[in-house]
Amino acid sequence: MKLTVWTYEGPPHVGAMRVATAMKGLHYVLHAPQGDTYADLLFTMIERRNHRPPVSYTTFEGRDLGEDTAGLFKTACQDAYDRFKPQALIVGASCTAELIQDDPGGLAETMALPVPVIALELPSYQRKENFGTDETFYQLVKALAGPVEKTPHVTANLIGPLALGFRHRDDIEEVKALLEEMGIGINVVAPFDATPHDLTRLGAAHINILMYPEHAETAARHMERVLGIPFTKTVPIGVGATHDFVAEVARICGVEPKKDLGRLRQPWWSKSVDSTYLTGKRVFLFGDATHVQTAARIARDEMGFEVVGLGCYNREFARPIRALAKEFGLEALITDDYLEVEKAIEDAAPEMILGTQMERHIGKRLGIPCAVISAPVHVQDFPARYSPQMGWEGANVIFDTWIHPLVMGLEEHLLSMFREDFEFHDEAGASHHGGHAPRASQGGQPPSAKLTPPGVFRKQRRMRPRRWKPAATSWSGSPMPSVS
């Protein structure tokens, strides 16, 4: 364990919280000191959810350690049930509370609550957040899902989407559309918006669509083994992967692989003359394994980029990422230390980074454009608009997201190229203001013909806009609008 400014993954109890927050009718009782209750902010501030997570804390303090902390936990459990009346409870300990070994699962079992209580064993000092999501969902499925009669028509479960996920809300709609085109219905979507009662119906489906292996692969393998439900291995991010996904689903379900490509623009746009400057751009990829794997294929095969580095932060997927890197003639970077990632990016000197929120900061430091492709992400990556990553529309969104940083770089290049032009030099006023009037100087005199050096221009652009006040004797009419 080491002190760090940023982290790609939190402790595993944060992963459990992401599952609980995504669901309805489920409550999480967390044995934790007051300082471990910060995680509420992740959902209300970053994801902008309109309700706080369904989590109750024991919030013991230092003075409680010499007393009955187990009693505090049992009181918190009873209070949570009485207040929220959940369909099921999950109980566990934070990394700090784990040290006092109160056994939340055993304590909750002695209370004989009238709802299922699922105990979570999340080793905080060996595992991290994505393990917490995967293990929590697996324990819920293991406890609640059993053999039931199959639906009369072919249906699928969509498993893996959860709270704080990168575009999970919109990916669900895209995958639903892909399945509906083939006549496949939806049985359950979980954990996102599912209830514990919904999980009891998982066994009625004919196929599990594993959308995010980091969060649901253990549960998918359990259902394949116990309930006889096969699951998909292809994640439909990118044009080629979406074609492969449709073919895989059709083969498993015995249906025709129908595709509606009417909304798909990415292949033509990436081949258009306006995109030829993208060919051969050197890119560095880093994020969770699923998004890095799919992004590598898109970058090389669909955008014509050259992948000069790739890696992931979740060590559980180190083996497939190393195999992928070998295919690209690279050595994979498997680390959760952002300083190592920054060093690798600096050494590779790419023209663009495809990464997480952390790589966006690294790109700013190094002056390299960055597009975000993976969690962890910040508030700007939870847009109000429809912005999926999966399916045909997801391919369009990815094209736009990836080229915009390069287009903005091209724009700055053009501004520099035409800096001496009479219309575009620094002393010329903004062209969208009437008459293309020149800027007035602070003293009210006409601007000088001398051009501002580039470095000074950049500093001025970053300054807070100030309203220009003309001298009474040198200007008539209304003042010019301020220009940022």
TrEMBL record:
<feature type="compositionally biased region" description="Basic residues">
    <location>
        <begin position="458"/>
        <end position="469"/>
    </location>
</feature>
<keyword id="KW-0149">Chlorophyll biosynthesis</keyword>
<dbReference type="InterPro" id="IPR005969">
    <property type="entry name" value="Protochl_reductB"/>
</dbReference>
<dbReference type="GO" id="GO:0016636">
    <property type="term" value="F:oxidoreductase activity, acting on the CH-CH group of donors, iron-sulfur protein as acceptor"/>
</dbReference>
<feature type="binding site">
    <location>
        <position position="36"/>
    </location>
    <ligand>
        <name>[4Fe-4S] cluster</name>
    </ligand>
</feature>
<keyword id="KW-0547">Nucleotide-binding</keyword>
<feature type="binding site">
    <location>
        <begin position="409"/>
        <end position="410"/>
    </location>
    <ligand>
        <name>substrate</name>
    </ligand>
</feature>
<keyword id="KW-0411">Iron-sulfur</keyword>
<protein>
    <recommendedName>
        <fullName>Light-independent protochlorophyllide reductase subunit B</fullName>
        <ecNumber>1.3.7.7</ecNumber>
    </recommendedName>
</protein>
<keyword id="KW-0602">Photosynthesis</keyword>
<feature type="active site" description="Proton donor">
    <location>
        <position position="274"/>
    </location>
</feature>
<keyword id="KW-0479">Metal-binding</keyword>
<dbReference type="GO" id="GO:0036070">
    <property type="term" value="P:light-independent bacteriochlorophyll biosynthetic process"/>
</dbReference>
<keyword id="KW-0408">Iron</keyword>
<feature type="region of interest" description="Disordered">
    <location>
        <begin position="428"/>
        <end position="484"/>
    </location>
</feature>
<comment type="similarity">
    <text>Belongs to the ChlB/BchB/BchZ family.</text>
</comment>
<dbReference type="Pfam" id="PF00148">
    <property type="entry name" value="Oxidored_nitro"/>
</dbReference>
<dbReference type="InterPro" id="IPR050152">
    <property type="entry name" value="ChlB/BchB/BchZ"/>
</dbReference>
<keyword id="KW-0077">Bacteriochlorophyll biosynthesis</keyword>
<dbReference type="GO" id="GO:0046872">
    <property type="term" value="F:metal ion binding"/>
</dbReference>
<dbReference type="InterPro" id="IPR016209">
    <property type="entry name" value="Protochlorophyllide_Rdtase"/>
</dbReference>
<dbReference type="InterPro" id="IPR000510">
    <property type="entry name" value="Nase/OxRdtase_comp1"/>
</dbReference>
<keyword id="KW-0004">4Fe-4S</keyword>
<dbReference type="GO" id="GO:0019685">
    <property type="term" value="P:photosynthesis, dark reaction"/>
</dbReference>
<feature type="domain" description="Nitrogenase/oxidoreductase component 1">
    <location>
        <begin position="12"/>
        <end position="406"/>
    </location>
</feature>
<keyword id="KW-0067">ATP-binding</keyword>
<comment type="pathway">
    <text>Porphyrin-containing compound metabolism; bacteriochlorophyll biosynthesis (light-independent).</text>
</comment>
<dbReference type="GO" id="GO:0051539">
    <property type="term" value="F:4 iron, 4 sulfur cluster binding"/>
</dbReference>
<comment type="function">
    <text>Component of the dark-operative protochlorophyllide reductase (DPOR) that uses Mg-ATP and reduced ferredoxin to reduce ring D of protochlorophyllide (Pchlide) to form chlorophyllide a (Chlide). This reaction is light-independent. The NB-protein (BchN-BchB) is the catalytic component of the complex.</text>
</comment>
<dbReference type="GO" id="GO:0016730">
    <property type="term" value="F:oxidoreductase activity, acting on iron-sulfur proteins as donors"/>
</dbReference>
<feature type="compositionally biased region" description="Polar residues">
    <location>
        <begin position="473"/>
        <end position="484"/>
    </location>
</feature>
<dbReference type="GO" id="GO:0005524">
    <property type="term" value="F:ATP binding"/>
</dbReference>
<keyword id="KW-0560">Oxidoreductase</keyword>
<comment type="subunit">
    <text>Protochlorophyllide reductase is composed of three subunits; BchL, BchN and BchB. Forms a heterotetramer of two BchB and two BchN subunits.</text>
</comment>
